[in-house]
Amino acid sequence: MSLLDKIAATLTPPESDEARAEAHRDAKALAADNQWLARVLSQHEDIERLFATALDATSEAVARQAVKDLAVLLSAHSIAEEVALYPVLVMDGHKTHATEAYEEQQMTKVQMAELERLAPLTQEWRDKLEHIRGAVLHHVYREESRFYPEIVREASATDRAILDARFAEEFDRSMGRTPAALQVG
Ligand SMILES: [Fe+2]
Questions:
Q1: How far apart are CA 73 and CA 59, in angstroms?
Q2: Residue 156 CB partners (closer than 8 Å, separation 6+)
Q3: What pLDDT is attached to residue 12?
Q4: Which residues, given as ranges, of the chain have pLDDT below 70?
């Protein structure tokens, strides 16, 4: 079974809610001196909130809007991580962690594309959404408990400044907020 198949077969995150909450709390403590991590964590909270909004929706319009917002946020967040953060894992010698993170996010993109083709509020749509939520929450747990503390531990002050700037830049661009200097034509 390939890693992508294994991820696809995961329905709920293997970690308990308590373990996930603890990882999030510990990561928040590290974020005090790492602006990039503070932004990552607040985006993780928004992602979790949007999953809840979509799953709690009782009208098709609310469900559709929540999934659309979730897709936009997941896309911008994942691109910023893939461009600004995962390469640092590779450079710091954590290539297997970077590979895991990249592959999980690729799988989520596939699953989100499949979700787009399902009618909101049907059982099939709900199962797919629950499935994606489980995979994303597991991915977030791995980032918060392992990958990002590794980056924080090994980053110099210069690295931190680069990470702060690059993560914000990539996220903002994907969200459609282009820096003024690039607004040409
Ligand atoms: Fe993330």
A1: 21
A2: none
A3: 67
A4: 1-12, 178-185
pLDDT of residue 179: 61
Report all structural domains of the chain as residue ranges with CATH numbers, in order of start.
Answer: 3-8+30-175 (1.20.120.520)
Number of C-alpha atoms within 13 angstroms, CB side, residue 159? 13
Ligand 1 center from residue 155 Cα (angstroms): 18
CA of 185 to the centre of ligand 1 (A): 33
CA of 184 to the centre of ligand 1 (A): 31
Residues, CB within 5 angstroms of ligand 1 (ion)? 143
Q: How far away, in angstroms, is 153 Cα from ligand 1 center?
A: 18
Q: Measured between alpha carbons, how far is 88 from 154 in angstroms, rounded to an integer?
A: 10
pLDDT of residue 13: 73
Nearest to 151, CA basis, from 166, 136, 133, 138: 166
For position 39, what pLDDT does the model report? 98
The pair of three-digit structure tokens given for residue 138, joined into one six-digit string: 């597991």
Cα 180 to ligand 1 centre (Å): 26
First and final C-alpha spacing in the chain: 49
Q: Which residues have C-beta within 8 Å of that of residue 89, sequence separation ≥ 6? A: 95, 97, 98, 101, 147, 150, 151
Q: What does pTM read for this prediction?
A: 0.90
